Amino acid sequence: MAAISYELIKTCQQSGARLGKIHTPHGSIDTPIFMPVGTLATVKTLSPNELKDMNAQIILSNTYHLWLRPGEDIISEAGGLHTFMNWDRPILTDSGGYQVFSLSKLRDIKEEGVHFRNHISGEKLFLSPEKAMQIQNALGPDIMMAFDECPPYPAGRDYMKASVERTSRWAERCLEAHQRPNEQALFGIVQGGEYEDLRKQSANDLISLDFPGYAVGGLSVGEPKDVMNRVLEFTTPLLPKDKPRYLMGVGSADSLIDGAIRGIDMFDCVLPTRIARNGTCMTTNGRLVVRNAKYARDFKPIDEHCDCYACRNYSRAYIRHLVKCNETFGFRLTSYHNLHFLLTLMQRVRKAILEDRLLDFREEFFEQYGFNKE
Ligand SMILES: CC1(C)O[C@H]2[C@@H](O1)[C@@]1(COC(C)(C)O1)O[C@@H]2CNc1nc2cc3nc(N)[nH]c(=O)c3cc2[nH]1
Ligand SMILES: [Zn+2]
Question: Which one of 197, 268, 298, 356 is the catalytic residue?
Fold first, then answer.
């Protein structure tokens, strides 16, 4: 029996959105879902209990980063990532495909894999489909990603075609190296940039390998939002309806809603916790930079419509004070609020799908948030 199964609950009458559940060895996940990112086996500044308090159902971690520090052998000796970080709900690990291309300046892509330099020590490293699978097998996540190339944006058509074909060959090698398919689900990653025929070629190659789930990669790499939406419009419908679809690296409120409308079930991004650490908060009425002087005597909560721990107990003035003094608790409060904001947004998206009114919800949310309406 496969490691995961996808239960399609309802398709939205107004859009391509769908309500579903992903059943994994560590519990079920309601989709569409946002996955907090815990790159180094921690969602920065927050504890597993705090993540559970805000109903985080699955978190993401990173093969590349954990391979470098502390090393997958230590995590394997600890009993795997769930035990090591005391998180007993589902975990997904990215394969390193993106990190190698985004973090390492010097890299040399060959058929066998990628030669590059450790972004911390500068030492020479080599990552291949087989190595990425061996690391993820040691970490023990419920969902693991195939080793792929996430091409730079923009990329010429000839480069993109060669890259797609190599990524498809690498996906096959990942399947061959997959040691425990009944315990860990391996997702294929569709590439192809903004070229519709290459996206089709990549999707068909991967569908023929029958993965239990599929990611749309090569997006959220600096392209305009309308390019991302257009690529999703012709890519998502190619993917099997009875399997999860995961848009990698997407985490702004508008992109989450627009991705769900186009049939995406899973999202992740460092954005909410990353901007929190420089004092920027996501609120119902748009972004709020709490370190701004105008909040020095503002005793309202970050977001008056939010019932999170930070908004129920602290004011903008207090959080501004902590952030200005570089107090860790300040960044814990902004991180808590931002993640709670996106997790709650996805709960509202799921409710809107159930009520067949996701496009109406988009209208209301964009109006309130101040997103420029199309
Ligand atoms: C590097 C860092 C921290 O991750 C964020 C953020 O910066 C930044 C940089 O600029 C923006 C766009 C604003 O977001 O892009 C990251 C989020 N985009 C993204 N993550 C991805 C992960 C991926 N993993 C694999 N294996 N394959 C992919 O194709 C892939 C594509 C991805 N796209
Ligand atoms: Zn809040």
Answer: 268
Nearest atom in ligand 1 to the alpha carbon of residue 222 is: 12
Cβ of 269 below 6 Å from ligand 1: yes
The answer, yes or no, to whether any atom of ligand 1 lies below 6 A from the CB of 102, is: yes
Helix 196-207 to helix 225-235 angle (10° resolution) is: 50
Distance, CA of 99 to CA of 29 (rounded, Å)? 26
The pair phi, psi for residue 153, each rounded to 5°, is: -110, 130
* 30 given a catalytic annotation: no
Closest CA to 152 of 96, 219, 104, 250: 219
Do the Cβ atoms of 192 and 236 come closer than 8 Å?
no
What separation in Å is there between the alpha carbon of 248 and the centre of ligand 1?
A: 7
Q: How far is CA 281 from CA 49, 232, 348, in A?
A: 21, 27, 19
CA of 35 to the centre of ligand 2 (A): 18
pLDDT digits (tens, 9 = 90+) for 24-82: 999 999 999 999 999 999 999 999 999 999 999 999 999 999 999 999 999 999 999 99
Residue 10 has pLDDT above 50, yes or no: yes
Tell me the torsion sign for CA atoms 66, 67, 69, 72.
positive
Catalytic residue flag (residue 360): no
Q: How far apart are CA 175 and CA 67, in angstroms?
A: 20
Sheet with 124-127, edge to edge strand ranges: 107-109, 114-117, 124-127
Nearest alpha-carbon partner for 140 in 94, 75, 45: 75
What is the pLDDT, as a whole number, of residue 97?
85
221 lines ligand 1 (CB under 6 A): yes
ipTM over 0.85: yes
Distance 54 CA to ligand 1 centre (A): 24
pLDDT tens, residue by residue, 222-258: 999 999 999 999 999 999 999 999 999 999 999 999 9
DSSP 266-299: EEE-SHHHHHHTTTEEEETTEEEETTSGGGTT--
